From TrEMBL:
This is Small ribosomal subunit biogenesis GTPase RsgA. GO terms for molecular function: GTP binding; GTPase activity; metal ion binding; rRNA binding. Residues 330-339 have a biased composition (Basic residues). The gene is rsgA. Pfam families: RsgA_GTPase (PF03193).
Amino acid sequence: MSYPLSQLGWDDRFASSFRRFDRPDSVPGRVLRADRGICTVLTESGVTRATLGGSVMVEAARDPSALPSAGDWVVLRHWPDRRTTLELVLPRHTTLIRRTADKDSSGQVLAANMDVVAVVEPIHPEPDDARVERLLALAWESGADPLLVLTKSDTSRDPAAIARQLGELAPGVPVLPVSVQQGRGLNELRARIGPGRTVALLGRSGAGKSTLVNALAGTSVMPVQEIRDADGKGRHTTAYRNLVPLPGGGAVIDTPGIRGVGLLDTGGGLDRAFADVTGLAARCRFDDCGHESEPGCAVQTALADGSLPPRRLESWRKLRREVEVESGRRSARLARQRRSPAPPSSRRL
């Protein structure tokens, strides 16, 4: 069965990157799912499974974020013995990446080459302001356009009021209340996908990401777990990233339910997620203002007149400290790698 890759976002940028690897035994494809060294990839001729080639493994040994992930465009090679190997990850246009739990501040790619990162936050039982701010910083840093999707809007008498309230935490970010049960907001969300475009969903377990994917796909493609009424959380989390092509073109990437998200060197994303705070800081009299008791501090003035909530400032400070620590750790890891001997070269295409 033939599948036009342009419907999934294959364009001149990726075609140009693939050109020097274009040979009779090699084809481009997009990763639907990656599982422990085996990737499920969609090519023009259909879905195939591929093991990781040596060059990919060598690169991943240096940087785990080089491993293929859902949404990656890759080069596959077909061998005479009917094996298929994934030989190269083409340069990513956008990357949604979080810090792993190790102390070296390495990154884990959650999704790649998406046009929009939708932060999915349920209205029931209650939105978590700090989580929304953290996830929006991650979304901004990805290079994609952020979107805040409020699921389960049918559980609120006035979802528009909640959307306006959360919009204050998301300067420059559209806020979309959605109810799958009532069909509210789905057409607006579909309009942001469309042929050639990809939306990645980011949020905690039980936020309704898989339910959204199924609604957009028009069929059950992702398992949906029962939700506990007391806290609104799912009993299980999706354990893998999965790209789902949609009828009519475009795709959605469902990421695992996330309890906590560690930020890497996301200074740019943090600044955009807290554009209100950074805008005030830029107006302070002194460039090195600590926003405590310095004269001419615009941040303290905004706190005093109530235009900047204290919780918002504290959240910014907390995330900025985290980014500074992780940036230092990352720099130290890269310095150690530069001092280490390079690994032996691997077979390439």
